[in-house]
Design a protein that fits this description.
Blueprint: H1 29-39, E1 44-49, E2 52-58, E3 73-77, E4 80-86, H2 88-109, H3 115-128, E5 140-147, E6 151-156, E7 162-164, E8 167-170, H4 174-184, H5 191-205, E9 214-220, E10 223-226, H6 229-233
Length: about 240
Amino acid sequence: MVEIESPESMPKMAYDRAIVVFSPEGRLYQVEYAYKAVENATTILGIVFKGGVVLSAYKTTNKLLVPESTEKIIKVDEHIGVGFCGFVADAHSLIEYARIKAQVNKITFNEPISVKSLTKAIAYKKQQYTQVGGIRPFGVSFLIGGIDEKEHLFETDPSGTFREWYGRAVGRGAKVANQMLEKEYQYDMSKDEAIKLSIKIMKAVEKKTTLESLDIGVAENKVFRKLSKEEVSKYF
């Protein structure tokens, strides 16, 4: 007589080969592996200030590398920017998707897409990739900052979940960065105070932070723009 193994006794590998298979504990291992890709990536940070949002990111540098080719803060629409943490190629694919969504909304409704609607589009796209066999989840998290009727900071994770925050860090320095945010964040802080706080936190969690390794973008007055190296140096 052949003895059949119970699901509880089957090895972990039996459940992590396909995204659509739940383990007996209700876990999707491929999604959890995607979270690991985010947790091991360099830190990104978002802070809401009175009238806007600051996004900052630490990026690895090399003397032979063109700095502009390693952006981690990217403009998606006139009033929205994103910082990403995880696989670069996954991030760029979703950013191009988000840009198309923003343009379609502008053409269809003759108005800019709301920050929440764009966040939902990205999150739902990620979630779809946790349901279908033969594909894998996106190994990237986003911090999405922008202004429509008010300032917003959203986070999306590899599972497709999204949340809105006043201050949030993601990546390998997230634990310490979020603890610092909880202690030092104030909603009525100015733009300058928010930028200074973001740089202070980044220096604490990414020990090799330099002027060249920082990417910073600001959304205010319904416009998102990247800060130049000269602008950042005033706060550094």
